[in-house]
Amino acid sequence: MSEVVAVIDYGMGNLHSAGKALEKVASGQQIVITGDPDQVRAADRVVFPGVGAIRDCIAVLRDTGLDRAILDVIAAGKPVLGICVGMQALMARSEENNGVDCLGVFGGQVTFFGELQNDTGGRLKVPHMGWNQVRQGMAHPMWAGIADNTRFYFVHSYCVTGLVDEEVAGRCDYGLTFAAAATRKNVFAVQFHPEKSADAGLTLLENFLRWQP
Amino acid sequence: MGLAKRIIPCLDVDAGRVVKGVQFVDIRDAGDPVEIAKRYNDAGADEITFLDITASHQERDTTLHIVERIASQVFIPLTVGGGVRTLEDIRNLLNAGADKVGINSAAVHNPEFVREAAERFGSQCIVVAIDAKKVSAESETNRWEIFTHGGRKPTGLDAVAWAKQMTDYGAGEILLTSMDRDGTKNGFDIALTRAIADAVPVPVIASGGVGNLQHLVDGVVQGGADAVLAASIFHFGEYSVQEAKQFMQAAGVEMRLD
Q: What is the average pLDDT across B160-170?
């Protein structure tokens, strides 16, 4: 039987892209987009994408029981990839929407970029939108074939800080330094969108499908 | 080290076909938006914008199929604009695989639509496209007004105030087209670009008037744009996207070249 990769659908945002990009790099794995907690639990690997507001995201996860399914899959040691708001949802807490408790897989905080300035004192635009460089914080199977400082596509107004160093798999600078990638055991999470990051992003997704944590 | 400025080729699509002639050599079907999007992706484009100029409502399904096909094969951000009037239009485009949706005249007719769209789908996918034209005389302080209907119909809205209002309402990005410069190849309206870029907290895409690669540099360096959109200089093969990026990088603009 071929491996099943579940892409969690909780009714928010564009899952087409993540699903299509995974299909593009899959070699025999079956990509399933699902909002069914049991199907998520039964999958061999899980991708947890996300866009939009964190409050709505967490509320839907709790209402549907997908929050517990994600925690179960993580506890079971299966590879899990969080993307964008999916990464943020794995942190302890976000200050978006007047403060939201998240899933707490990581101890990090999700904070607003705020009024940031560039080197010459100009105002940095928020959302942080476009291709920025990721400084790899460690050697990791998810970075296989991806050069240090490769650019990935970001679009976000909130970012993850406050992780312990050994959990920061990649860093990015935009007025401040934030976690572009976080990892802990069988979980890898990225703030950028690998499904929109051309060849580098496809390589990362391919690495995820092969990853044996 | 930091965020790169973006180059965004723009395709005008009518009933599923790219119009205003894209003239790539050795392209199998120059009218197929999927072929052209793939080509631009391979050439290093940072995003692709797809302007749907289809007049008839029935043919809008064609657009959705095209967006689906592009999104299955091209893994860089895709913005789709043109005729977006309802939340359902936005949902359909996002579900088909668009990453961002451009709203233009519907915002002018009903600014609240932008607020509703941003609340529902998130600011990150709502681009407000504004078409501005200079209305001040040479001796006066610069003033630009929003026009609709391809630059024919004035609205009385001040362009800078309008851009600010749209970002207050939740627009995550502004696509700014100078109707004075569009099609002229004389370069962006730099004063307009600078005025809007300084006024809003979100990224601004400069559009209208690109005739050479220095114009792209000027839009970013002098105009303060975060991204530059161009059609004809790329479509007719005058310059490749890669040449444009190298030129900009050489001029000191940070670009994605890997």
A: 98
State pLDDT tens for residues B188-217.
999 999 999 999 999 999 999 999 999 999
* pLDDT tens string A74-93: 999 999 999 999 999 999 99
pLDDT over 70 at A157, yes or no: yes
Whether chain A has a CB inside 8 Å of the CB on B124: the answer is yes
Phi-psi region of A170 (alpha: psi -120 to 50; beta: other; left: phi over 0): beta
Each domain of chain B, given as residue ranges in start order, spans 6-250
Are residues A135 and A165 in contact, defined by beta-carbon separation less than 8 angstroms? no
**CATH number of the domain that A179 lies in?**
3.40.50.880
The backbone region for A109, taken as left when phi is positive above 0, alpha when psi lies in -120 to 50, beta otherwise, is: beta
Nearest-CA distance B239 → chain A (Å): 21
Contacts of B48 in chain A (CB under 8 A): none
The boundaries of the domain holding residue A118 are 4-210
Note whether B99 contacts A17, CB cutoff 8 Å. Answer: yes
Q: Centre a 10 Å sphere on the Cβ of residue B246 and count the other Cβ atoms it contains.
A: 15
User: Is residue B52 annotated as a catalytic residue, yes or no?
Assistant: no
ipTM confidence score: 0.94
Active-site residue, from A96, A167, A195, A206: A195
Per-residue confidence (pLDDT) for residue A14, from 0 to 100: 65
A·B CB contacts under 8 A: 107
Q: Do A125 and B121 touch (CB under 8 A)?
A: no
Lowest mean pLDDT among A102-106, B20-24, B112-116: B20-24
Nearest to A131 among B4, B172, B203 (CB): B4
Peptide bond before B33: cis, by omega within 30 degrees of 0? no
- Report the distance separating Cα B124 and Cα A112, nearest Å: 14
Q: Which two tokens stand for residue B104?
A: 């233009």
Q: Whose CA is closest to B256, among A24, A117, A200?
A: A200
CA-angle at A153, arms to B40 and B69, nearest 5°: 45
In the block, tokens 């496209």 appear at: B129
The strand order across the sheet containing A135-136 reads A30-34, A4-8, A45-48, A80-83, A187-190, A176-184, A168-174, A135-136
* Structural domain count of chain A: 1
What pLDDT score does B25 carry?
53
Q: Hey, what CATH topology would domain B6-250 get?
A: TIM Barrel (3.20.20)
